[in-house]
Every structure is written in C-alpha cells, then in structure tokens.
Amino acid sequence: MKNILYITIGSLLFALAVTQLAMPNSIAEGGIVGASLLIYYSAGLSPGLSTPIIFVALLAIGVWYLPKPMVLKTIFNVAIFSLFLWFFEDVYAKPIEDPLLAAIFAGVFTGLGFGFIYQAGSSVGGSSIIARMLNHQLGWDLTGVTFALDALVVIVGVFIIGPIFTMYTLIALYVGKLVTDFVLDGFDSKKAMNIISPHYEEISKRITTELASSATVFYGTGEYLKEQRRVLYIVVHSHRQLKLKRIIKEIDPDAFIVVHNVKDVSGGFIS
C-alpha cells in the first residue's frame, strides 16, 4: 500500500512538472518522457498518448529481461503517470516569463516525483528498460547506457527546441537529480568522520556521554613515522557534525579529521 501511495504521489508530481512547467516553456526531459516531449514539440502528438505507446512497446520486449515485480510496478506507474499527463494537459498553464525559473521548478517537481517513485522500487525513465536489456544481452554497463540514452535525447533536442532551451533542459535535469538524491537520502542525512588523535580515549568518552553515540576504533600505521595510531570512526546526524568537531577541537586542536558524505546507513547504533 505504501509503494502504491509513493508511486501515485511521484507520478502526480512528475506529470505536473511535464504539463505545467516543461510543455508551456519548451523544456524537454531525459528518457522516454523526453522523447515524447520532443515528439510533441515537433509533431504536436500528445505526450499522454505517445508516452504509454512507447512504454508498452519497450515492456513487451523487456518483460523477458526484467524482474517480474519491477515490470508490474512499472506498468502501474506508467498507467497512473499517463492518466495524470492526459488530465493535466487540458489544464491551461501560462508560460513563465523567465525560462530559467521554469527549468528550476520543473527540475524540483521532477526530482520530488522521481524520489517517491524510486522509493517504491519503480521507474518511469524508460531508458533504464533499454539499458537492462543491453546489459543482459551484451553485458553493457547499466549506468553508462542509461546516461548515454538520456544524453542522446537531449542532443536530439538541439535540433527541435534549439540550443538555448536545450541548455534550460540540462539545468532542469541537474536540479532534478539533486532533489531526487535529497529525497532518497532523507531529510535527516548523516556524516561519517575519521578522527586521528592521541587523545582518542577522551574524545570517544565525550562522544558517548554528550552525543549519546558510539565510535569504532581502527588501528592504523602512519607511513612517515611508522607509528601505530588509533583511528576513531563515527557516523552522526549532519546537524550534530559541528558539535562533534567542537568537542574534538576542545580536547585536541591538532586532531586530524576527515568528513565523508554517507549515502545510506542501516543497523548499528546512531544517536
């Protein structure tokens, strides 16, 4: 039920981005939806009609190479998305005077939509279906093929919507990726920190008492002095990173600290 809700919300947001922001302002997209938009700009064929036709053709082939749960979710996703496209196409949207704003907000809505859809384990990119088939048959890299197919759609857009609006499309795609990553990472992102200090015991103790968290100790050897040192490794919520650094600097101003972005954390104990 949760996945169905996510797919519905994501499809609604993506459809709004396409019909209310992209179409009125001559902005394209990547993947199959981008191809449908280019068909609309060049031939006037409704994306609400061309999108499901292209998807059905791809799924008819891809059903042999894709996991059955993914096929079922994608079919549901495409049906809902196409329905929203068809409905909102008839809702008049006035072009925005500043195309850059249109591109940014199209990216925001698209990114939010994709974030919900990916959370549900589904997809509306279309190019991922082709990428999986080529990976299965020829062993081609999934990410590389998906990127190449999306790039091909954008390049074709130069000849249909022109170079200026193609650049706006690239801005929309970039913003969309940032927002999608933000949704997938969650609002409460985390940081991993490596801390090297001779006062590691005191730092570890204050981490436990003041941050209600815990640190893992690794043993490492400095290449220059050939001395064995203990390295603290801790994962904290991003909003507590500054407090942790203040604690470390109070104990050892010369402590060596490396901060990493963490894509996903599960298990273990985090405050």
UniProtKB/TrEMBL annotation:
Organism of provenance:
Halobacillus karajensis
Residue span, DUF2179 domain: 214-267
Gene3D superfamilies attached to this UniProt entry: 3.30.70.120
Give the membrane topology. Answer: Multi-pass membrane protein
Q: Which GO terms describe its cellular component?
A: plasma membrane
Q: Mind telling me what this protein is named?
A: DUF2179 domain-containing protein
Which range is the signal sequence, renumbered to this chain?
none
Q: Where does the chain cross the membrane?
A: 38-63, 70-88, 100-118
- Where, subcellularly, is it found? Cell membrane
